[in-house]
Amino acid sequence: MTLIRTKIGRRSFIRTTAMAGGGLVLSFSWLASCKQEEATVAELPDEWFELNGYLKVGDNGMVTIMSPNPEIGQNVKTSMPMIVAEELDADWSLVIVEQAPLNTEVFTRQLAGGSQSIRQGWDGLRMAGATAREMLKQAAANSWEVPIGEITTHEGMIEHEASGKKAGYGEFAAAAAQLEVPEEVEMKDPSEFKIIGTSRKNVDGPKIVTGKPLFGLDYYEDGMVTAMTIHPPAFGARLKSFDAETAKNMPGIVDVFSIKLYEDGYLKHPFDTTAFNEIIVVAGNSTWEVMNAKKAVKAEWEPISEYMDEYTDFRTGEALPKRIPAGMESSGDHRTEMETLGAKLAKVTRKDGDPDKAFRNAAKVIERHYSCPFLAHNTLEPMNFFAHVTETEAKLVGPIQTPEFMEKSVAARLNMPLENIDIQMTRQGGGFGRRLYGHFVVEAALISQKLKAPAKVVYTREDDMSYGNYRPAYYATYRAAFDENNEITAFHVRAGGIPESPLFAHRFPAGAIDNYLAEEWAIDSNISVGAFRAPRSNFIAGAEQSFLDEIAEEMGKDPIAMRLEWLEKAKNNPVGENNDYDAARYAGVLELVRDKSGWNQNAEGKYRGVSAYYCHNSYVAQVLDMVMKNGKPAVDNVTCAIDCGIVVNPDAATNLTQGGVIDGIGHAMYSQLSFKEGSPEQQNFDRYRLIRHNEAPKSIDVHFVESDVHPTGLGEPPFPPIMGAVANALYKATGERYYHQPFISEKQLRG
Amino acid sequence: MSTFNLTINGETATVDVDPATPLLWVLRDHLKLVGTKYGCGIAQCGACTVHIGDSAVRSCQIPVSAVGSQSVTTIEGLSENGDHPVQLAWIENDVPQCGYCQAGQIMSAAALLKNNPNPSDEEIAATMSGNICRCGTYTRIRSAIRQAAENKTA
Ligand code: FES
Ligand code: FES
What we know:
The structure holds two protein chains of two kinds.
Chain A: E1 2-5, H1 22-26, E2 32-33, H2 37-43, E3 48-52, E4 55-58, E5 63-67, H3 76-88, E6 95-99, H4 117-144, E7 151-154, E8 157-160, E9 165-168, H5 169-177, E10 184-187, H6 205-210, E11 225-230, E12 237-243, H7 245-248, E13 253-260, E14 278-284, H8 287-296, E15 298-303, E16 307-312, E17 319-324, H9 331-345, E18 347-352, H10 355-360, E19 364-372, E20 384-389, E21 394-398, H11 403-414, E22 421-425, H12 439-451, E23 455-458, H13 461-466, E24 473-482, E25 488-498, E26 515-522, H14 537-555, H15 559-572, H16 583-597, E27 607-615, E28 618-629, E29 632-643, H17 650-669, E30 675-676, E31 679-680, E32 699-704, H18 719-734
Parallel strand pairs in A: 5-6, 11-23, 21-22, 25-26, 29-32
Antiparallel strand pairs in A: 1-10, 2-6, 3-4, 4-5, 7-8, 8-9, 11-14, 12-15, 13-14, 16-17, 18-26, 19-24, 20-21, 20-23, 24-25, 27-28, 28-29, 30-31
Helix pairs in contact in A: 3-4, 4-5, 11-12, 14-18, 15-16, 17-18
Chain B: E1 2-8, E2 11-17, H1 23-30, E3 49-52, E4 55-58, E5 71-73, H2 85-92, H3 102-115, H4 121-128, H5 138-153
Parallel strand pairs in B: 1-5
Antiparallel strand pairs in B: 1-2, 3-4, 3-5
Helix pairs in contact in B: 2-5
């Protein structure tokens, strides 16, 4: 057991006697239950006692645990409460999970992004459970007049063995709620875990499979207006004027007007990112009527002039100016620019040894170029948000990954104090980074304010795809130098993109190569970009891991054995100082995937590619097997080894990993967003290709490294490396290397 | 505006709407049956899948005027207590991630099994490839359909 203090910084588990959460209990349809719904309803307690902001215990032993972070499909709504329940020693079958509202006083970091929810929530969640358990034990000790040290707990029961006394948590909930919060509490040793590390089903599962209203788009209020927006048809354009006379007179239409998202002089935070500050709004009684009226609005657009945009830095809060050039950009020009300008613009970010000399003296040099296109996030639930703004307050409900940030934006835009803004989070039909950027939350607020009515803003798929904060387009050049014995003597990466570089200069193989050079560059653009599942890693991992495959081939080595040799060197005799990975853990996943995939065994008829990467504090290695089906390569099986510390909910973690693998295969093979004259050429799923059922692997085996290291990221890490595994397996299957995503548009893969 | 009498999940529902309104929006906006989802509006994603009779159809493509007296089943009416074999198999395999596509997936799977109680993997893939899952739950969907098929015939 570990003894910990119960305060984190200024936050402490102050109890609210007013039962702040009590009201929510009544709106039962929004609750998720781990039990069958019918049973739970019958067993709801008469009274709840809140022991801290994270949980309350009912007089009948039922426990409600608040899930603080936004649920975007990464399972936090199940796995975060599991952590609380573990330290509480709760009976999981008596636990109800509720989505907590935004409350910065009680919860830390209510944000879904960077695969950090579990990692950063870990201590706070455990403390919440442990503190409440301690208070329940204390209440029992007082009542039974026995020392608290002799009291044990187990699945929602309190016991004093010597006297044979025994009671459920519900019996002491009221008394516990009267006690002072203890200064220090003990947390369990991982070896004592009974809930963490066991698979528990998605708490929203029964609601999802029966179609209950869970998502933002499902949120309706009486008198609610439905609103849709019209944004410029191209990046590099802005609204000039519009004529809405016809549209306004169409059936069911309430109003058509334009809104200005952010006012001049407002300093934006990074999640305010938007390319279109002025848009047209069509509001009406029903979605279909609004969709029709939208088509009848005649808008005129004009080209933008170059301007400086400004966003604060996420970490430092410092204002960072960003040049937004004028012009309508096209993907063909992007490609030419990336091919020709990279070398001119590049700046050195890391240099070990004397790479120039090594390349000059090399017996052989190989040089390869890799690229990927812009991608749209395409969460299956399009952007949407509900708002009800009155003179004095604003209620907002919907799917957002950054509620805390967007609350500030709304407060600033409406000129209202922060405490008058209430943001409630719904379940989210996917995030992948897109819902970090909440311009649509502000849009909803402005629309409701203007109409003086509750309003829900809804994006069509076309709106969603053509108004994105996209994954940037990237480009990388790799070079390796060899001596006459075919040993590698130098490694050079030069990477960049539009409008940012994907490079992580201090990641493997930095640290393993004596002469190493990393350079990066970027080209400005007016196309708005943002974080996309495993930002930057989602390209550079695949490029790097494909290049390592070519190096291994050049050296006549097995690609896993070569990586392990290099990692051995990085572990025992590292080059440079800032190496951003733990070589032993990195090697650990490679060894595990080698053994679990039967790498060294003969795999008849299978073409295998390996890849490994470290990001978001976790290590992932993958082996992907392809087979030839009707003369075309098809993914058969994927073996995945992961070291992400303690795994809270193994089956859900496996699901998330399988999803990451399928997502990665899909984006490497099929997806791209291309631009012509500033307009996205794909605006719906007819032209934007996402991976489908028949293209998914037959099976994906996931193996976790046993660990008692605190949990690290999982939503993102399995995604980047798989692109390298795809490329390497494709080479084995077809005899040709694939360098430019999506691979389907290259050579013989074209149908 | 015209009045339509629809049979949805065994009950009669009357709506007064533009005859061109897709069934999807009638369900969601007018009848508040929001289990049926919008994903693309152009028959590409399958999120809006419902049953008309025993067939799976994309409700974003069916104008309400074309429904007539045919009986419509949505995810809310697939079973009374959420215990259709496909729903049970979905829970058993813990299929959903974000969950947004899953109503459509379940409706496609249920219609598949109704018409072909023991589909091969190829048949499963052929039917289910019309339903996009952005979170990538395809392997679990396949396992769940196999399990539902077994449980049905058992
Ligand atoms: S919404 Fe109907 S198929 Fe996508
Ligand atoms: S579970 Fe998220 S789209 Fe399928």
